[in-house]
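protien #1 (seq + structre)
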Amino acid sequence: MEQKSNKFFVYIILTVNNKLYCGYTNNISKRYHEHISGKGAKYTRANKPLKLVYIKEFKTKNEAMKEEYRIKNLTRKEKEQLIENYSN
């Protein structure tokens, strides 16, 4: 039986056609593999994932959902800056 994590993650995936997809989960590895296999989200079925470019951990689902909402409302340039700061 799979144990539920008490951590939550917000992530950004870069797709093969240079799009950015943001989501949240409590199991980052499982969720990314769902995206790769075409079972993660309608968006990533049409825009195949290339790699995870951003991950941030949260203690509660509510915090993660708020951050996902905030990121989804950023401009492309602001998202790229967020990813660049994460990478460095």
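ok now protien #2
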Amino acid sequence: MEKQTAGRDNLGSLAPKFAELNDDVLFGEIWSREDKLSLRDRSMITISALMAQGLFPQLKSHLIMGKKHGIKKEEVIEIVTQLAFYTG
């Protein structure tokens, strides 16, 4: 997985600790545990969680990331269909 820098790029000067936690802990330590859960599965879970919470601004970047991790368009459609009745 490529090194994540979105936290530092977007919030590094405003909230450096948050940027560090986002980039180094969440995407560095947790997402890198591919022996526990694949990047594809982590992306599917994240897309589902963001959609269920209505966090659509974050959803776009995770859909792009999910595609890089092997999620197909048809699978995204099924995720959206499955969650349509569970979101607020």
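The chain has two domains: 1-32, 38-88.
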